[in-house]
Amino acid sequence: MMFRVFRPIDIFSIFAMSHPRWTGVFPAAITHMHADQSIDLDATARHFEALIQSGVSGLVVCGSLGENQCLQPEEKRAVVRCALETAKGRVPVLSGVAETSTRAAATYMHDCAALGISGFMVMPPMVYKADQAELLHWFRSLAAATPLPWMLYNNPVGYHADVTPEMFAELADIPNLVAIKESSANTRRITELRNQVGDRYQIFTGVDDLFLESAILGIDGWVAGSGIAFPKENQQLWDLAKAGRWDEARALYRWSQPLMKLDTHVHFVQYIKLLCQETGLAKEWVREPRLPISGAERESVLKTIRTALAQRP
Description:
Elements: H1 8-15, E1 24-25, H2 41-53, E2 59-61, H3 73-87, E3 93-97, H4 102-115, E4 119-122, H5 132-144, E5 150-154, H6 156-159, H7 165-170, E6 177-182, H8 188-197, E7 202-205, H9 211-217, E8 221-222, H10 231-242, H11 246-260, H12 268-278, H13 295-310
Parallel strand pairs: 1-8, 2-3, 3-4, 4-5, 5-6, 6-7, 7-8
């Protein structure tokens, strides 16, 4: 009798079969504010609708760009409820999970599940810089807290915790861990991940101005940031890349690149909200401790934005 020997990648693939395969553009939405820093749910809903109308495949709310860490617990749940009521099942809605304790994160996931959330984008522990063993334990604990699918947000640049391809191989037995938001700013990681775990995970890029380079290497999706200000062009860029229309994609990418770079600065929330204000989709108000940018910095960013918008395709 002959027995088939399964390579590790064959075993890995089994774990993702029972969950949806997320693909396409999943924009990271902002949380709209009034000038007094209270949440503007009406404006938030209108922006969600504009994103859905542009053809996106999903929504990510309460992420870093959504100012998760500055929102009160009840405010986060209100934003999730707003997204679900706006989407009405047309696209999956994911919420960022950015908490300082495992218990708080699990509670939040339970509450979002009760509201009808489609899944999650899980960040590493906030504030505390976990080591490798603690990181693996964090992600396993939160995976066990929900049956819903989730995406692991790897951003060592912003959060000083790196989930390596080898660690993703260790986590590959978690059935509901279905995707990676890869934001290391190292495009080598995409090939390293494919070589390490094949197609076990859906790989999303999370760095806007590395989108086209990442698309060439073979990604499944894009958690877009700056593109929420110009959603039609952003979706068109994705569609061109997926169709292999590289000359057209390069031209659109070159136009959008100065705007995309606004997503890679420490003031990325302020910059992208200002960009959204210039395209008529938002106001620039943010939640403290962030402050709207001012002076020479604001003038420089506005020059970049207005120069690009004057040449808008």
